[in-house]
User: Fold these one by one.
Assistant:
Number 1:
Amino acid sequence: MKRIQYLYLVAGIVAGIVLTSFFAYKAAPGMMMKEAESLYNFEESVSKFEQTAKDMGWKIPTVHDMQKTMEVNGYQVASMKVFELCHPDHAYEILKKDSERIVSNMMPCRVSIYEKSDGKTYVSWMNTSMMGNMMGGVVAEVMGVASADSEKMIKSIIE
């Protein structure tokens, strides 16, 4: 009798792990990446976003015009710009320590503004706060601040 109870216990634990893993796998993309519709057309969204970022002390070292890049390679896609955002103070907090540099592949922060086939403009960004919390320590602190700033920038075109 105890053997059957033990088997049920083990089967329940295994089933719980499998189900939890499945639901986490299905939910992760929606938790990691965010998307919102802009209140403005593409050009206005880009302009307002850039100005807000600069007003908040962020630098935009690179803007990737994906529509032009794809056009050069023979493809037609709707308007899309990917912004690389850097706040030197935040970046320094991570880059000054060898132990934190592992997250440098997620730097600088990125935000995309693009049009979809419905004619509307959207903005997407990574949930850097969640990513930082998974890392802990200085990375969590810095990415939490950077995430809050990004959210403010994005709100300038979605609210």
Number 2:
Amino acid sequence: MRHPDDNSFAERRKTADAAKRELLKRFASAPKATDPEMQERLAAREAVAAAREARRAEREALKTAEAEREMREAAEAAAAAEEQDKAEAEARQAEINDRVSRVVADEAARKAERDRRYAARKARQG
């Protein structure tokens, strides 16, 4: 059983040749690289690429500036924390020194009182 739209080999070959000729005609009529319209398109494409590159460079510069700012802030925060730690350590040391001097003063006062009592007892006995 044959289909009515079944093409024979010769018809298929003729259709393929026609398609190839059409393709070649389109290729031949396509604008060449030296055509002003093609040069205009190329220039527009290059302008778009240059603008894209400029935007990319600007984004990179902004990212770099932001990273530098964050590094600066981190360094300042670290310096402030270090300064605060140093101040706290100095305050602790001052408190320890004060406590030690009070203990030494109390000890000296007790010794002086003991020596006074000892001297008074010796004076009473002698």
Number 3:
Amino acid sequence: MKKILIAVMVAVMMVLSSGCAPKGYTSADVGAVMITYEGEVISTRTVNIQDSGEGTILGAIMGAVVGHQIGGGSGRDVATAAGAIIGGMVGNNLNRGVGQELVIKLENGQKISTLIKIDPKNPFWFKPGDRVRVYVKRDRVVKIEPLFLRD
């Protein structure tokens, strides 16, 4: 039973601290209104994304919970502390990455700037001149997709 609990906690920690958005829709998206704009990328810049602190904190909490399941007495205290430290480091690293800052001129003439995280497993870099569709929900860009596929 203890091993199952530890495996579940590790899995939850990995999902919650990854900082990755789901690739599709969730039940919270049903009925939500997204406004779409079309435009052209006018400039790009590669940036490093640092952890805002959420990944570190969540990782430390989950690591402490998992570590607390190990041993007893002072050994349990050491395992809890070690779990918190290791979980915090894992959460911090998972919430970092490489991003691309985009400046987009929308068809209505307005210019917007936003940041997207690049998926290292499937990198796609926008270039100036790319035509894009921008999805906005509650004043946040939730997705940018190219309007064409380039070679």
Number 4:
Amino acid sequence: MLIFYFLMALSFFTIFINGFQWIFKFNIYNANYISFSFISTILYMFTQSAIMFYFIGAGKKIKEIILENELDKKIYQEVIDIKNELFPALTLNILIVGTAFVLGGGVQTKALSKYWHFFMFYLGLLHYVKVIVVQHKSLIKNSDILSRIGMQLDESKRQ
């Protein structure tokens, strides 16, 4: 789970630096703004996809364990609640950051005003801060659910 925190911090940092790179026109290891935006966006998309797949996989496994061991089914509702809170915000942020990336290409080809890109970029960055907070809370809740499932399994095996 620590890897998710590292990836979230790294992807936020690269997107943030990419914004500064665009404003102040400097290169990072000979990568200009356009080249570095590919790297930061790909890292961001990978991070968000990995987090989504973690919650999908963990939820599926929790459901299987509950059904196989006849545990309290109320716990699975908490898993669904986590997904209902996290996935809409995460999906919206992926859409905003992806749109900002595409609009950046439009600005570079002079087909679009830079202010559209500015707006989407900063909206995506600010919304990403919110998403990171929601992801953090969701990871904590998911860990708590896994602990409770483990305790219920221990109790059922003792009996």
